[in-house]
Amino acid sequence: MFRKIVLIEPIGFAKESMDALGTLAGSVVSYADRPRGDQEVIERIGDADAALLTYTSSISGAALRACPNLRYVGMCNTLYSESNANVDMKTARELGIEVRDVKDYGDQGVAEYVVAELISFLHGYGTRRRSEIATELSGLKIGVVGMGTTGTLVANALVFFGANVSYFSRTRKPDVEAKGIAFKPLIELLEDSAIVCTCLTKGTVLLGPEEFRAFGDGKILVNTSIGPSFDLAAAKAWLDSGENEIFCDSPEALGDPRGILSGNDHVTARRTCSGITRQAYERLAATAIENIKKYLREN
User: Fold this and answer.
1) pLDDT in tens, 195-209
2) What torsion, rounded to 10 degrees, do the Cα atoms 247, 249, 251, 255 define?
3) What CATH number did the domain enclosing 59 receive?
4) Pairwise CA distance, residues 273 & 296, whole Å
């Protein structure tokens, strides 16, 4: 077992999960706020041999080097690629520190968000309605960009409601196409779709001026990625050109620190992340704990 596990920031583990962590270490220390900078990360980890964090904080190479007892880092979020990881993976390898992440824990909530947002807007169950008369999802042409776990769940949910769904992905998905969800090149998908939902990995921006021109007017864009899937200036020009709408399931999905889209009546960005639910926390904790158990068995 570990000598000491430190949760360097709030992760959302229930009491049962914290109790389970307690069986895997001599002591478990958790913090109720996020660390502010490297020095605070170093101080919180201290002499611990295991640390846990989520996507709202990071552990730099300098912090890893300053914690000589550290041998395991549990990312309670998904590692999409080393280039945008919130743990310095290169330094961790050099120091022999094991880093393990958690995948596919919040996708169900995201799929529910997409369906709920679209139905509310198309039927007018909220403060606005797309058109004078309510519109069903049935028969609408909807494109899904990115066919990982989230994109697949979103596509399947929309198909259930009768939408005419197509997809674009870097790789073809025969299992998706077997369900009648057609692959289309990105520009063709944008031209043909009334609604497009982007479900991309963190840091992936696919929609620029050319793509928005192809998408055209009178369209709806829903982004569920961790970060904007679109160039902000191009998105503003597209919004200004006609009756278009952007919906984002979290502040991170909008990713607008300079306020380029702020105050636009045609932009809806939720203040919370749709993937963070009670069930998501349960799945997250279960996988994070199993990752630790597996590491301890192997070492």
Assistant:
1) 999 999 888 999 999
2) -60
3) 3.40.50.720
4) 32
